[in-house]
Amino acid sequence: MTTCTALESPDLYTIGWIAALPIERAAATALLDERHESDTNSYTWGRMGKHNIVIASLAAGVYGTTSAATTASSLLSSFPQIKIGLLVGIGGGIARPDDGADIRLGDIVVSQPVGASGGVVQYDLAKAKSNNTRERKDFLNRPPLVLLHALAALQAEQPIKGFKVPRLLEEMWKVYPLMAKSTKSVPGFVHQGSENDRLFNPSHQHAGGRDCHGCDLKEEVQRDMRDSTDPEVFYGIIASGNTLVKDAAVRDQIVEYIGEGCLCVEMEAAGLMNHFPCLVIRGICDYADSHKNDRWQSYAAATAAAFGKELLGYVPVKILQETRRAVDLLQSS
After folding, report:
1. C-alpha 206: how far from chain center
2. Which of 35-39, 65-69, 83-87, 279-283 has the lowest mean pLDDT?
3. With pLDDT > 70 as the criterion, what percentage of the chain qualifies?
4. Distance between CA atoms of 313 and 153, rounded to whole angstroms?
5. What are the backbone angles phi and psi of residue 109, rounded to the nearest 5°?
6. What is the DSSP string of 241-303?
7. How far apart are CA 268 and CA 64, in angstroms?
8. Mean pLDDT of all residues in 107-133
9. What is the spatial distance between Cα 258 and Cα 306, in angstroms, rounded to a whole number?
């Protein structure tokens, strides 16, 4: 990555990239092809492929749908020519190995419309009714067409060329070797070893400690070894809400509410979909259960960011120029 002075005007930046955590912003920054110097620490400016992008992160220690919405609003105010956005970071995977969703840690989940859902469902927004049922109040906007077309193009090329994500990660580690270093106390932006990727039956609670060495081996879900540690990509519904999910019973209740297409849970997307035309990309860092820990977070942030970069390569500059500005789209809605 090279560094140069900022472009002449904020109007030359057309893509907004939102990351909740510092590690998510770090991964995105490391994947820039060119970093642009600026006079503010609020955003990271740069070029990714043919696109000039602005990377924004939430205030330290402040998460959730409201914080994400505030960040997006400030971003569009500072960069009025932004057309589309990406929300890229980590999330909890909803793994169902026997039902076609054999999600592993480090894999990638992308929000994609399914039926009446736009790809993101807010699971904690429903209206209770008198007969003890719930009325759905969670229908959110779909991602912008320019990103859905790019996603379709990427999916069509994948069986022919494969994903670029592994190569992009290798390049990142080469340019920034510090990110490839990993210790037990400070995990790096690299795969953390299949032996540390353990999925347990929902009823089995974590035995305590930083890892699962004390957890019952008999309660571990047995899964076939993969031929490679390269991340796989899943497309479907992402569940979003203001509660950090770290209980398998709660996680499974969310799936029951949303449906089998639900692949991931996280805390920011629902605050953006109706206020910021974007696609959500999540690297899986845990299984949203009591066994949740931080070991896989940096690597999951890196895989998600690499997929985001690959996807932007399928967004034509001319089509993006013809796309309505995000601020205009919101004012007319």
Report:
1. 25
2. 35-39
3. 95
4. 10
5. -120, 130
6. -SS----HHHHHHHHHHH-TTEEEEESSGGGTTTTS-EEEEEEEEE-SSTT--STTHHHHHHH
7. 5
8. 77
9. 28
What residue type is assigned to position 187 of the chain?
A: P
Q: Average pLDDT for residues 145-154, to the nearest whole number?
A: 97
d(CA 50, CA 192): 32
pTM: 0.94
Helices (H), 33-128: 65-78
How many other β-carbons are positioned within 10 Å of the β-carbon of residue 122?
A: 22
Do 269 and 242 form a contact (C-beta atoms < 8 A)?
Answer: no
Are 109 and 263 within 8 A, CB to CB? yes
Instruction: Please report the pLDDT score of residue 139 as a whole number.
Output: 62
pLDDT confidence of residue 125: 65
Pairing of strands 278-286, 108-111: antiparallel
Question: Are residues 105 and 35 in contact, defined by beta-carbon separation less than 8 angstroms?
Answer: no
**Contact 101/95 with Cβ under 8 angstroms?**
yes
Q: Are 271 and 73 in contact (CB under 8 A)?
A: no
What residues pair up with 121 in beta bridges, in sequence order? 139, 239
Q: Which of 27, 1, 16 is nearest to 56 (CA)?
A: 16
Where along the chain do its domains lie? 2-332
Residue pair 14/320 in contact by the 8 Å Cβ criterion: yes
Beta bridge partners of 92: 265, 286
Proportion of the chain above pLDDT 90, given as a percent = 74
Please give the class, per CATH, of domain 2-332: alpha beta
Q: What are 243-256's pLDDT values in tens digits?
A: 889 999 999 999 99
